[in-house]
Amino acid sequence: MKLKPILRIWLPLAVLAVAFALLAYALAQQVLRQNANDPQVQLARDTAAALAEGAQPYTLLPAQVNLSRSLAPFVQVYDAAGRLTAGSGLLDGLPPRIPQGVLEVARAQGENRVTWEPAPGARFAAVVASVQGGDGGFVLAARSLAETEARARHLRELTGLILISILVGTLVVV
Description:
With 174 residues, this protein is α+β, with helices and mostly antiparallel strands. It is elongated, with a radius of gyration of 23 Å. It contains 5 helices and 7 strands; from the N terminus they run αααββββαβββα.
């Protein structure tokens, strides 16, 4: 068989395989990333509710976390003006600063979920909940995305291997 007829049959199959592989990767990667928010949603909402009922921020914080080494979640409490009042996470010995715009979105919508990179290589899945009642303010709950990003890299590699196998297999069959 000549090369042109083979390509005419195989090329549409290859394009379709690439499209499906990209779609599958994108969907799986988004599921991984969205699942990375789950513990923080609960932590931020519960802490905000306790603050609204009058609890003191320092009584609600988890143990202090060194963010450059730990995967543990941490919490930061901000007043209504966006000033940090309490926190359990330290990056290079200091609490990382969330951009004011993240707090403003939480004020307007009640909650904000972001990927936050306060320093190169330090990426966090962060959920900011607005405190309803009391003096207002915000609760940020976050944790490292290191494991989620490692899983996404593995997923990308696996998707690539499967795609190459499909392309080679369909070319052989054609």
